[in-house]
Amino acid sequence: MPAVRTMGFAALIMAGSVFLSRLMGLFRDKVISWQFGAGSETDIYFSAFVVPDFINHLLAGGYLAITLIPLLSRRFSEDPDDGQRFFSAVFCWASAGVCLLSAIAWIAAPQLASAVSPGFTADQTARLSTFLRIILPAQIFFVPGSCFTALLYMHKQFWVPALTPLIYNGCIIAGGLFLPFSGMEGFCWGVPVGAAIGAFLLPAAAVFRTCPVHIRLIWYHPLLKKLILLALPLMIGISLTALDEQFIRIFGSLADTGSVSELSYARRIMLVPVGVVAQAAGVASFPFLTSLLSKGDEAGFTRTLNKALCGSALFVMPLTAYMIAAAEPTLGFLFEGGRFSTHDTASAAPLLRLFLLAVPLWTIQQIISRGFYARQNTLTPAIIGSIVTLFAVPFYIAAAKIQQASGVAAMTTAALGLYTVLLCASWKYRYGTENTFCGLVQKIAISFGLSLPAGAIAYAGTRLIPQIAVENMPLLCQQAPALIHAFSLGISSIVFGIVYVISARLIYPQAVPFRIR
User: pLDDT tens digits for 64-89?
Assistant: First the structure.
């Protein structure tokens, strides 16, 4: 139980960091939407991240901490000096690999730009090539920085990694606002600066200050082979959870102009609950799960995994229900204004609702995948993810051409649902631990039942309030639409909270962790 409480505190740290990071990301997109709306320039900007993100995926940069922590933890506990040698070897190879791939991609930028944006015109592709060459060097800082972050997580230090996305987003915003470049080029220049400061220099300074490690030029260590075998499925796998953002950019380019931007804006909002609940729970639980397995505590491992699953599911359902109900005023409050019109808000709201349906799925798969990784099983999630993704590609193409942006959003949610179900089924078949999912379906069903009436009433409020405002305050609605959206959000959230809490207290008091006096 002390470990569970400590894990909960770590999850709160990560949740707070992700929440602030998502807010900064939303503010960044607010600046973008105000200046450029949802059009060609924003489509190009969002598409410029496809190749850099793919390089990061190819080198397992986003998963480096997952594969490295179990091996580092055991090596440092057995032989600290050899642990330092192993870390140095990983750092050297990761740095060399990302520099080589980034240089190749920089040279081949025009060809890569054509490949990742099949629906763009020649002028758009040329502009995309320019953006791509500006953004690519950021990976040179991201991947080596992931090595330092893994070391901090191993020592259960969460504060510095929590600051990384805040600095990264802050630099992008500053680049777009203050650098004297045309169009969105300033935002692009903020990307490598933010990566250098937030993703590399900050964790590096924290490691050298608090962790006993000295990096040396070492190219061989016996554990490198095992690390590669663990990372290889993540490197060559094409899981939708790693590539969903790239998919909405690639297949969104097949839809109408502005579709990539609208999908990206909607996805940005969806990432707030995903990050605050799913990502925070997964990242915070992983070091504890790894530690329990290294001690041979299978019962503690299962109990901790079940606690993370049930607790997160109970919290994420009402949050998802409210955000679905308040999708349109949320988009309007955050982005409407400047070149982002009321029409853009109405077009993006259905996309946001489709994305939000996947939030509970994100939560379950983020946590259960950490269970696989803690058992040093990266192959099973990669195989399942690759099969689901390859199966989904032709449906993505058809959906983009037939249903435009809404088809892409719907396919993302459907594919993620299939992946989550297969991942859980594989866990149950492979490890046979019934207690892992004990009470999970019941808590999801109860939380969904409690959220449904509260969400319906909140949705009715978000439709009624703007109508009343238009009839009684037409001038205010024209001059300050954000105030109307903010008022709608405030009233609907209060109504949702009251209805949900009262229903929960009457039906399932455990869903509300406080008492009404």
Answer: 666 777 777 777 777 778 778 888 88
The CA distance from 502 to 450, in Å, is: 9
Task: In whole angstroms, give the CA distance from residue 264 to residue 270.
Answer: 10
Q: Which of 241, 279, 224, 256 is nearest to 97 (CA)?
A: 224
Extract the tokens encoding 37: 């709306």
CB 313 within 8 A of CB 439: no
Give me the amino acid identity at 421. Answer: V
Q: Is 182 left (phi over 0), alpha (psi -120 to 50) or beta?
A: beta
Average pLDDT of span 320-339: 83
- List beta partners, residue 337: 340
Looking at residues 208-222, what average pLDDT do you find? 79
Q: Could you tell me the sign of the dihedral formed by the alpha carbons of 374, 380, 382, 385, in that order?
A: negative
Tens of pLDDT, residues 438-452:
878 888 888 888 888
Angle at 142 between CA 201 and CA 218, to 5 degrees: 80
**Who's near 361: CB < 8 A, 6+ residues apart?**
413, 416, 417, 420
For helices 359-374 and 240-252, what crossing angle results, to 10°? Answer: 140
**Which structure tokens are listed for 129?**
């090539």
